[in-house]
Amino acid sequence: xxxxxxxxxxxxxxxxxxxxxxxxxxxxxxxxxxxxxxxxxxxxxxxxxxxxxxxxxxxxxxxxxxxxxxxxxxxxxxxxxxxxxxxxxxxxxxxxxxxxxxxxxxxxxxxxxxxxxxxxxxxxxxxxxxxxxxxxxxxxxxxxxxxxxxxxxxxxxxxxxxxxxxxxxxxxxxxxxxxxxxxxxxxxxxxxx
Length: 193
What we know:
The protein has helices spanning 7-16, 19-29, 31-35, 50-57, 70-86, 112-116, 120-128, 164-173, 175-182. By secondary structure, the chain is mainly alpha-helical. Among the domains are: 1-38, no CATH class; 112-153, no CATH class. It is globular and about 60 Å long. It starts with 6 loop residues before the first helix and ends in an 11-residue tail after the last helix. The relative contact order is 0.12.
């Protein structure tokens, strides 16, 4: 019997394992396989958890002595992760002239199939969003004056990344944390019928 394991999944399992399991995995696969799994500011894909971000930055893991709301704790963790994803040599700086482009994870509240199944009027209301402003970096927010959604860079500059690829990774890899930060009476995977 032959078992194949994707290296990225093996490294994720290693990153989340306790020391005894890590030793066992190293004896099975060799230490070299897991060297790339150590969190580093030189490769954003090695940052797979909040704890990885803290380790790469050399910062302590946040302990909440004040019972802060969950969405505030999630935001604090996302900011730490964002700094780790920026890496060693990048510091975003606001650009008053608008010549720099930064990327922010974008989250859809509808699946592709749900959008395809909408009648033309529903889809038009969704896609027109805010015709005056267009779609800026940020996240969707519902508001009567904007019809279906609007997004502005001012809503999360500390969570922006310098490339679209990194922003996508940031949104997908940390989706549960993003949901905790952005949610209002919803959970990942649930939807209204």
